[in-house]
Amino acid sequence: MKNKISRIALLIAFGCLSFTYASDNLECNSAQDCKQKAEFQYYKEKPNYQNYIKYLEKRCYKFKQCYELGSEYLKGEFVEKNYKKAVELMEPHCEVDRTVPCDTVADLYARGDKYLQPNPHIARIYSDITKYYKKLAWQASVCKAQIENGVINPNDIDCKDIIKDYENIKANYSMPKEH
User: Fold this and answer.
1) Fewer CB under 10 Å: which end of the chain, C or N?
2) Does a structural domain hold residue 112?
3) Which of 136, 145, 142, 128 is nearest to 164 (CA)?
């Protein structure tokens, strides 16, 4: 008993007890903090995949950054594979970045699984949006670069329209829902 008490005193004296408590508490202060702590759990010498998923869940539900957690439901390595859950978590990221998340969501709707009925129509919509968005983003970046470098007049109506369309889609377009 005396030996156990002296160990506890040593732990408190060196601050190890508070560190252990904080690391077991699974707290994070920001989306980036949660991501770093999740990656630490994943890549440490003896990975703790349960805590890895818990940090991704905190990042998702507390800070609305769910793409990585959705990816885990897609892979089904540390949680049960569930395309419907993956879509629910990834779709909001499609609103922000219409490339990788939209491609992934399109693929999930095309394939389906026991939780998500395949829906070729919605898959096609996501795929078309992604293709159109990528093309428009490329055209807008070329126009902006040509204007900045004096290759074309800043009032070139075609480039102004392309840039306006791109900015409008980027800011205002909402993705289709399965319902």
Assistant:
1) C
2) yes
3) 136
Cα–Cα distance for residue pair 58/50, rounded to 1 Å: 12
Rounded CA Rg of the chain: 23
Q: pTM of whole model > 0.85?
A: no
Q: Which of 159, 158, 105 is nearest to 128 (CA)?
A: 105
CA distances from 61 to 7, 41, 64, 89, 144 (A): 38, 19, 6, 10, 37
Q: Count of domains in the chain?
A: 1
Residue 53 phi, psi dihedral angles, 5° rounding: -65, -40
Structural domain including 166 reads 99-179
Query: pLDDT by residue (tens digit) across 30-44?
Result: 999 999 999 999 999
